Amino acid sequence: MPRMTSSTLPALDGLGPLRPTRAKASDFPPIAKAYTRVSEVVRESGLLRRAPVFYAFTGAMILLALGGAVTGFVLLGDSWFQLLIAAATGLIFTQIAFLAHEAAHRQILKLGPANDRLARILAGSIGMSYSWWDSKHSRHHSNPNRVGKDPDIEVDTISFIEEDAAQATGLRRLLTRKQGWLFFPLLTLEGLNLHFHSLRHLLSREPVKGRWTELSIIAARFVLCYAPVFLFLPLGMAFAFIGVQLAVFGVYMGASFAPNHKGMPVIAHDAKLDFFTKQVRTSRNIRGGWWATILMGGLNYQVEHHLFPSMARPHLAKAREIVREHCRTLDVPYTETSLFRSYAIVIDYLNRVGLAARDPFECPITAQDCLLYPPDAAGGIPSRGDPSSGDRPRLVARARVEYLGKVVYVVRGVRGRGDFRASGE
């Protein structure tokens, strides 16, 4: 297929003539006062106050559930029904992780240091390093879905942007080709992965605040959780118990966090966006009301959580109404969908990213030439074209962004990123 330049790019219906340019600050009109205004309304509504009764009740329910699991473990003895107890502990540990997340965001207690101590204890009790997770999570909140700055889209086993998928080799390339379908099965290993990264961080030579406190809590946790398993269960059953617990924990954690940003616009590393815009446009809410809030620990209100990280879980639903109306006034898209629809979006997005690992090629994109395509019929990211017709767009990475009524494609090449836009009212 011949390479197209600015002089050969066609006009697209509804968009008018297209001219490739580098993205400039003027391409994203600032609405700096947007966050100030909505935060004033939220504050005046009393939605930033603490909710001690709610968290005391939630903590008591978790302790009660944990006590029930321990009782069930003792009563069942040498029985394969113990795997049900293992699954239950995986669910309980994830609920504890939600509380640790909220404490880290200063949602539970009044004083910051007290929240830090609580978060460190809660994280350690489920085998995670608070210092490792907090550093990673803080960077994510500052720059959600921004290339090179959000650690949550950095390549691990899964590639979240096509540049990384195109560079996959060996076994990882094979996984990347079908990574959307493999995503949830791979989450069964996420619990083990979280333990590994936590211990690697704590045992590294770099300075770590609270290193010995965290190591002590994690060590005590492993002894208290796993010593009884190996003491009272046959060896094979004991390993099965731990495997089920880790698998359920990993899947539950991943299934709660993945819908929040995966498949939402990816921001170029040097794009200039105000706080309100970058938080709203890269986040996705999950419908479901109170049951979704319990199931996901408040992460179902991801837009509001990113705008007001210290907001207690019970206030997020009311904040949603305020933020939605504010977005409607500013004509800023507010994304919300069902839980299972969000999973379908994540799978589809990861499969599209994985296409780069199926047929890697040199990307011809430079600052002067690029193929630009309008949204598909469903209003989503365009398909990569029909390979049999030779119509495949010669792009390695692309993200669709709507900004104040305009359609913007942020396009990144493998060699030297170039940002281009196609816009139309």
TrEMBL record:
Residues 79-337 form the Fatty acid desaturase domain. It holds the Pfam family FA_desaturase. It comes from the Bacteria. InterPro entries: FA_desaturase_dom (IPR005804), Fatty_acid_desaturase (IPR012171). GO terms for molecular function: oxidoreductase activity, acting on paired donors, with oxidation of a pair of donors resulting in the reduction of molecular oxygen to two molecules of water. The chain crosses the membrane at residues 53-74, 80-100, 219-252. GO terms for biological process: lipid biosynthetic process. Residues 1-21 are annotated as: Disordered. Keywords: Membrane, Transmembrane, Transmembrane helix. PANTHER family: DELTA(5) FATTY ACID DESATURASE C-RELATED, FATTY ACID DESATURASE 2. This is Acyl-CoA desaturase. It comes from Leucobacter massiliensis.
